[in-house]
Amino acid sequence: MNAENEHSDNQRDPTRRTFIEAAVLISGAAITTPVLEAQTEQALPGLRRFSLTINQVRHDLDLEPKVTLLDLLRERLQLTGTKKGCDHGQCGACTVIADGERIVSCLALAVCYEGVDIVTIEGLERGGQLHPMQAAFLEQDGFQCGFCTPGQICSAIAMLGEAKKGMPSAVAHSVSPAEPVELTEPEIRERMSGNICRCGAYPNIVAAIRATERS
Amino acid sequence: MPTSIGQPVVRVDGRLKVTGKATYTADHMVPNLAHAVLATSAIARGRMASLDTGAAERVPGVIAILTHRDKLPLAKDPTKVAEGAPADRVLQLLQDDRVLYGNQPIAVAVAETFEAAAEAAHLISAEYREETPHIRIDQGLKDSYIPKKAGGAGDPGESHRGEFEPAFSSAPVRMEEIYSTAFQTHSPMEPHATIAVWNGPDELTLYDTSQGIFGDRKRVANLLGLDVEKVRVVSLFVGGGFGSKGPSWSHTLLCAMAARHVNRPVKLVLRRPQTFGPVGFRSATQQTIALAAESDGRLVAARNQTITHTSTFDEFTETATFPTRMLYSVPNNTTTQTLVRSDIGTPSYTRAPGEAPGTFALEVAMDELAVRLKMDPLEFRLKNYADRDEDKNLPWSTKSLRACYLRGAEHFGWSQRNPEPRSQHDGHSLIGWGMATSVYPARRSPASARARLNADGTIVVEAGSQELGGGTYTIMSQIAADALGVPVSAVTFRLGDTRYPETPVSGGSQTAATTGSAVFGAARALRQRLFDLAQATSSSATLDDVVLANGTIALRGSGRNQPIQEFVMQTGQPYIEAQSSEKPGEEQKQYSMYSFGAQFAEVRVDADLGQVSVARMVGAFGAGVILNSKTARSQFIGGMIWGIGFALHENTVYDERLGRIVNNNLAEYHVPTNADVGSIDVLWIEEDDRLVSPIGAKGIGEIGITGAAAAIANAVYHATGKRVRDLPITPDKLL
Amino acid sequence: MNTFNYNQALTVDDALASVYAHPDAKYLGGGTNLIDLMKMGVEHPTALVDVTRLPLTRIEEYWGGLRLGAMARNSAVAIHALVRRRYPVLAQALLAGASPQIRNMATVAGNLLQRTRCYYFYDPSYRECNKRNPGSGCAALTGNNRIHSVLGGSDHCIATHPSDMAVALTALGATVQVKDANEERSIPIADFYRMPGNTPHIETSLKAEELITSVDLPAPPGGTAHYLKVRDRNSFAFALVSVAAIVELDDRKRIRSARVALGGVAPMPWRSLEAEQVLTGGEPTEATYRKAADILMQDAKPLRFNGFKVELARRGIVRALTTAAELN
Question: Among B638, B495, B513, B483, which Cα is nearest to B582's?
Answer without folding.
Answer: B513
